[in-house]
Amino acid sequence: MLGLTLPARAQSVDTTFDSNGVPIHYVASGTGEPVVLIHGFSADLSMWDSVRTRLSHDHHVIAMDCRGHGRSGKPHNAGAYGIEMVNDVTRLLDHLHIKKANVVGYSMGGSIALKLLETHPDRLLSVTSGASEGFRASDDQWDSLLVKHLVAGEPLSQAMIESAPPGMPAPSPQQRAMMSRMDSTQDSRALGAQRVGNPGLYVDYARFKHNRVPVLLMVGERDHPERFKELQAALPNNTFVVIPGAGHGSAVDRPEFVQALAAFLAKHS
To answer: Domain 13-139+198-267 adopts which CATH fold?
Structure first.
């Protein structure tokens, strides 16, 4: 654990810090090697509750609300996102006087983690990317119908319904009610700005050629694991785990996810 500054005793923290003018909310608990958890798009740090509880037994676990999400600041300009989401992580490490950490991201958070691997490998003990092979220049989804509805300020639930692929069944009244409840915690324009800013997170696989940071890639069996082939080939000595029977939304909640993560962290401690 060379190069780490660890808390002297177990302590739970729920607070914010200033990241170049944007308040970033985070919670921290436990002692040991630091682990930073980065959630997915339109989620918040609560998606990590069970993982954080498990890892806090032997790690200093920090879960953050990404800008545009949760209880963090929600800028409406796309230029406030992109690489600034990476900078939020390194500023959080600086704020906590941590030189290096294990960084774990899921979906959008996995893309942020991979961009960290490209730009700040010196700050990383390991990287875990769940359900994301990173944003790339070949992606063309940032001008999608969903983004246009979000930028226009439509509630997230309505934007999702109006941008659904042709032939997708309309949500049931129960599903619609659940989606509407979700709207109360979201800022649609901030979510749209985040998506528009994603080119600032594009990764260049060629820069991973000489990577020495341990990398864990995890994906649900029903979340197209084959899409990771190019990233696997680009990353020397990566560990690849497929969660049986899991889809994009369910893999992180499966016991196999946290078991594989805990084993990976223990192996590379």
So the answer is: Rossmann fold (3.40.50)
